[in-house]
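Example record used in the benchmark description.
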Amino acid sequence: MGCSRGKASPDTNTQRRLFAASGGYCQNPRCNQALFVEVETKNVSVAEMAHIFAAQDDGPRANPEFTEEERGTFSNLILLCANCHTVIDKAPEAFPDTAIIKWKSDHEARIAAVFGSVAYETRADARKAFLVLIARTGAVHRRVGPDNEYKWSPEADEAAEWQHHVRETIIPTNRSVLALLDRNRDLLLENEMETVELFRQHIDGVEQRHIFNSPLPSAPMYPKGMQQLFEIEARV
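Model output (structure tokens):
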């Protein structure tokens, strides 16, 4: 998913944000190709960061008024599969910037709708939705998570399945949980706020390790207080 365009290249945080916004799928609405593909025992990334307005003045959909830094910002990038990236850049007249910007905004709206970043009226309602999401990741951890006995055998089938589920289940669901927590921040108790921020740092660490292959040595583990969020009713 690399991009070597000097100052027009996105920084690490922008890359993370792009992946999170994509939900792991090409943002072309006529494609929706999964950006990680299973090939025998390997998980191959076909994701590419595409510039909406070109990184260079002679590129597709170029806007000479943009600075190099502006060309590498989140708002000027979209995450596509390799095929769609090639197509939009080789036929820019068929894919104007307005169309690509709409692809991106519509895709993000669909992701938000699917994963339910809804504002709830009560802590009890928020907890019900929260428990559904963490049950999804919890089931994966219990069955093939790295704390199981196979950790002593890195070639085990479970290890490969875990790597698959991290990208296909854990990372997208973590982002859904965070979206729910951020949307319902007003319902959180003061002592729960720190847990949410530790969780935010935790998922950044997971994504850095499993998407960008660059582990963060100080990234926190899954916070112990996560299971108790929204559990106790707030005092009136």
